[in-house]
Amino acid sequence: MTTPAADITATAPVRAVTVDLDDTLYPQSAYLAAAWGQVADAGASLGLPEAQLLAALEEIAAAGSDKGTIIDRALLAVGVAPDRLRLFVPALVDAFAAFAPTSLACYPGVVDALRLVRSRVPLALITDGSPRGQHAKIEALGLVGAFDAVVVSDELGGRHLRKPHPAPFRAALARLGAGAAGTVHIGDRPAKDVAGTGRLGMRCIRVLTGEYAEWPAGDGYAAWLTVADFVSAVAAIEPLLPRREREDAAFLQR
Q1: CA neighbor of 231 nearest in space, from 63, 71, 116, 133
Q2: Residue 203 phi, psi dihedral angles, 5° rounding
């Protein structure tokens, strides 16, 4: 269910925009499917059953990709004894971390929508994860140079600074020279994107794409708007963006 934006023009102008990456701009499942394949290949080189390991990795990840110990649990599922996990886990974790996709595809319309936003206001990407992996995704998506700033939370000091920690949001605001009240964040996760921005007084648009599309809104902070996807989010805030001489009329008519 989406939140209507009938009265959006009565709210404060948007002076900057920040966006999430995984499951907001592209389907993360495409990246994970290929990454788990590389992990299974690495497992096969260590004598593990490749097909069974791949199936276990995909099944466990599908239950929640950020719950942790996916590789450990997959190894247990294919019969590796608990006291032998240490013989396999480091190499398989390295295989996952080293995965660099050659090509990924954004959701339809995302590239044009990003261009429209950036033609009007400063635009930053805020993403969690291994810096090497996140930058590889950006390159594979063809989005290098698409933002005025890119904030990978782990680069700020480690995993403990991942969203909803305020550090990555504050870093993006600082790099854009923007204030929280005038900035809108677009992301898919209630517990990270919505909660993290709510604590700083930023407006957040939740998109219902990817792994967390069916998750409840959660407690604490409510999204400013909830819409189907990133293109819909940009269309919703377009009336609040400063006018420029050149506008993408084709995008607005979609």
Answers
A1: 116
A2: -85, 140
Residues 16 and 69 in one domain: no
- Any domain includes 1: no
Three-state secondary-structure class, residue 104: coil
Task: Report pLDDT for 10.
Answer: 57
List the beta strands (DSSP E) in 111-218.
123-127, 149-152, 183-187, 203-207
Q: Which residues is 16 bridged to in the sheet?
A: 183
Q: Are residues 156 and 43 in the same domain?
A: no
Total domains present in the chain: 2
Please indicate, yes or no, whether residues 77 and 90 belong to a single structural domain of this protein. Answer: yes
**Whether residue 9 has pLDDT greater than 60:** no
pTM of the model: 0.87
Separation between Cα atoms, residue 201 and residue 181, nearest integer Å: 6
User: Domain check: are 93 and 110 in the same one?
Assistant: no
